[in-house]
Amino acid sequence: MSFKDIVGQERAIKILTKSLKENKVSSSYIFVGSEGTGKKLTAIEFTKAVNCLNLNRNLEACDNCHSCNEINKQCCPDLKIVETTKGSIKIEQIREIRKEIELKPFRYKKKVYIIDKAEKMTLEASNCLLKTIEEPPYYAIIILICSKIDPILPTIISRCQIVNFGLITSLKIKELLLSKIDNLEKDKAKIISKLAQGSIGKAFKLSADKEYFIRREKMLDYLSIILPGKYGEDIFTKVEKIMSEIDRIE
After folding, report:
1. Residue ranges of E strands in the chain
2. Cα-based angle 135, 84, 92 (whole degrees, multiple of 5)
3. Residue 52 contacts residue 61 (beta carbons within 8 Å)
4. Sequence ranges of the domains in the chain
5. Which partner from 64, 90, 129, 159 sits 20 to 30 angstroms from 145, CA to CA?
6. CATH entry, 3-165, from 2.60.120.650, 2.60.450.10, 3.40.50.300, 3.40.50.880
């Protein structure tokens, strides 16, 4: 896995590789964008690149050195991923970061903390994190991942480099599905890519739902009885898009 395998986020990756090239890696980042657009995957690849022992000419991790292998196996002592517990990120989790971050890296160049769904931090957790972001150790990188930036404290936002992740085009999603999923029909890949609303994560969830197309065909059969010609299918497709958009907003 490398930066080139991340679909549709060329601009975000260009920002990160430029910081590596110029040796201007920030101490704190906010990766913001819709769910399923590759933010967490990019954060992990960036961590690999920062600590890679054999970085290539394209500023991509080698995927073979000790550091890359440990990160790939999720057993790297210098990488910590913080996730929600019972729907939020609590102050105890951030206090643990503050305690650990005082210690220098165990093996590699940088200690990296990835806070997934950072918009779910409680106010107490946010204020606790702010203290660390204000005066970060030179060897630490904190990456906040969020789908919405508004819930993040303005004082945190002002101290982070923001990297935006856009929606993926339906064409790129379709191509990815066909390349990754054996025996997936092109028509199904096309339908899924449109319903995914720019989210690769959502596209793979839909493709894994074996019952979805069975339910879809049943609904089309019902509508074909009520409505003549292609009207039933057209209406159903529009309803699917509306429901998909509602899910994305939520």
Report:
1. 28-33, 79-82, 111-115, 140-146, 161-165
2. 50
3. yes
4. 3-165, 170-249
5. 64
6. 3.40.50.300
pLDDT grade for 244, boundaries at 50, 70 and 90: low
Percent of the chain with pLDDT over 90: 65
Q: Where would I find the H helices in 85-185?
A: 91-100, 123-134, 154-157, 170-180
24 in Cβ contact with 156 (< 8 Å): no
Please report the pLDDT score of residue 25 as a whole number.
Answer: 96
| 249, pLDDT greater than 50 | no
Q: Tens digit of pLDDT for each residue in 15-38?
A: 999 999 999 999 999 999 999 999
Give φ, ψ of 24 to 5 degrees: -125, 45
Q: CB-based burial of residue 233 (10 Å sphere; 0-12 exposed, 13-18 middle, 19+ buried)?
A: middle
